Amino acid sequence: MANGDKCDNPDIHHPVAGCSKGTGKLVADVITYRESTKKVEQGPLPDVSIKIEGPTNKGNQKSGSADGVTPVVDGLDPGNYKLTLEPTAAQQDAYDFATATTSQTRPVGKDQTQAYHFEVPFRWLEFQVFYPDEKTSATGIEYVVRVKKPVKDAKFEPYPGGSGKTTDSKGVLEKIPAGRYKLDLKLVYDPVWGDKEAVIGQAIDLKAGVSGFDSGTKASLEIYDAQDPSTKLLAVDATVAEDDKGQRTVKASWTPTQDSLKALRSGRVMFCAVVGSSTASSSSIPVFNKQKYEVVDETGKKIHASFELRLSTGVVLEQVAAGGEVDVKCPWNDPVVRIDMPGQRGKQITFEDDGASARSFQIPL
Amino acid sequence: MYEFEDHPNTHISGVVHPKLRISWSRRRAWHGETVSIQVRTELVNDGTAVKLEIHSDDGKLTLDTFDKETITGNKLDKDYKIDWKSKNLKKDPHTFVVKATIKTPPLTAQSAQLAIDLVPPQFSA
Known about the structure:
The structure holds two protein chains of two kinds. Chain A is an all-beta fold. Helices cover about 0% and strands about 50% of the residues of chain A. Chain A contains one helix and 28 strands. In chain A, the strands form seven sheets. In chain A, strands 14, 15, 16, 17, 18, 19, 20, 21, 22 and 25 form a ten-stranded mixed sheet that branches. In chain A, strands 1, 2, 5 and 8 form a four-stranded mixed sheet that branches. In chain A, strands 4-3-6-7 form a four-stranded antiparallel sheet, with no helix packed on it. By secondary structure, chain B is mainly beta. Chain B has one domain: Immunoglobulin-like (Sandwich). In chain B, the strands form two sheets. In chain B, strands 4, 6, 7, 9, 10 and 11 form a six-stranded mixed sheet that branches. In chain B, about 30% of the residues are buried. The chains are: A mainly beta, B mainly beta. Chains A and B meet through strand 9, strand 13, strand 18 and strand 21 of A and strand 1, strand 2, strand 3 and strand 5 of B. Strand 13 of chain A pairs antiparallel with strand 1 of chain B.
């Protein structure tokens, strides 16, 4: 200044400086840092409105857009000046003003510059996905970060910019709103059959857990020969749904038929749950074909009889046709190669089978 | 459940459980035939190396080893011709398994048995 006033170069780091006659000055800065850390990494918090109340009204200020420092306010009559941060809604969302000191009252003395220093932390979240050794990163998995804001009846909603694929390095979100956070990996997992065996003509449930995908997402439950996972036998359409406990699943009911399994060679099936680009394979279960056996006498009357079915793999199924009939579950692709009827020795027996002519035999004594 | 919930100002570490399965395309084969080795994985990245070892069911005899195979789209299908004339195996029927090993993530799996008839059957006239 031409009059030699030393206040023309105020420094926030050296706030006490000479001022013009009889008045003082003030200056404020607002910085931010990672909440719950040692404030090692600090930076300016720009554009925060600061209300100034005191003996002289020179209007309000804003923290500088580059360095977080306000312009120097001079020509202030000596006295206590109260500075209060007045953040916008967006700033309150991004920074934790609730835990910060947002109002300070300090004396501004004659020929002095008073400095006000505000520190407002910002919330953050880091995440990384590992394999069970908890050292090796699991990469390439689609994820979505969801937030539930601390308001009544709030639900988890996708956080803008909080989605992508996992990498070798940790994901970082900074200056995030208050609330609960969830890292949802977009995966389908733990596919299970509803029964320990599949029977032709009987419905069976298929179910898998789902995370990350929204309810209503299309899914597919693909059924394979357990010994040939390269050839799909059929697919059952399904949809991701949420149950009463908020657990998301994909499930469907499937009724195996002779026709749908004609390409099944091994006698066991497995299914692969597919949602988006995620897949998960179930364990395998055996497939059975239920066949009705009737034993009748020469007049056509059903008779009680015991018999044994010997299958191509050597399996023997002992059966009792109580009342002359019995349902037998035969393993898929394991045909009956021999029928023993120990109690019927010496009798003439006729066999009738689907698609085959009747055959008669004399059972030896 | 792959949903990890926490409050802000924390580091969330999620853990996933990859899987590995391996199977023969058949349960029984003749010497000289080609069968398929089918590897299926979950949560394993493309390009991951998988080592395949074919050995007798008792583990005493290793027939073949492949260590340059990789997973693509969480699967690997490899045709394999049973050609063990130089191995001087006994003429009895044998059962063999194939074992898959992945280093990262650390996974191993073994197939069910493949029964192989080393000598063609002889039928009476």
